[in-house]
Amino acid sequence: MPLSRPEPSRRSADMFTLYGCKGSGSAAVEVALERCGVAYRTVEAASWQPETAVAELERVNPLKQIPTLKMPDGNVLTESAAILIQLGLQFPASDILPVKLSLRAQSIRGLVYIAANCYSAVSIIDYPERWCADADEAINERVRRGARDRLHRHWEIFSDQFPASPFLCGPTAGGLDFLAAVVSKWSGARAHLRDARPPLFAVLERIDRDPSVAPVFARHWPAC
Question: What pTM, to 2 d.p., does this model score?
């Protein structure tokens, strides 16, 4: 099903265009765009869903990865962490990035940590055949298990390095919270954290309920 959001009555040239699909990393960017208060439209596109606008996505991002964000001036942003950092810098009143420099530095660190360690492990879990040539299904499953164990360990380390107060970015949910809440929904991470790191699990549930997050998550995960 396409992402559902009423589009403001503005020309497309004046709007952000977000390529993504339900349940994907585009949810974090959608929360950020809502927080910024800007006009945007969504284009359903995912490489694993050939009936979507994959060809259009490929024209702006040859890797066909989502989220991809096209700016009103035509510039294209890829990589979730980079998109959130740019929006936080461009719209400082949005609180996507903290104003306090020490908190901002740690927020940027956390965003890149999730992208480099957690997001990348999920990619291996989803597509083990890309990382091991001529592998049969038994080998693919071993790769998945190893990557899943590694992913869960990365989240444990994240929990130890980024304690909440009460959110990961400080007093207000921001970009780091948005990305952590989305990426932790995949590959059994939440179930693992419930037992291994209950404080982080509680924070993630708090982020899910945040007024700026909950409406977007309800569109992406309507059964949750």
Answer: 0.92
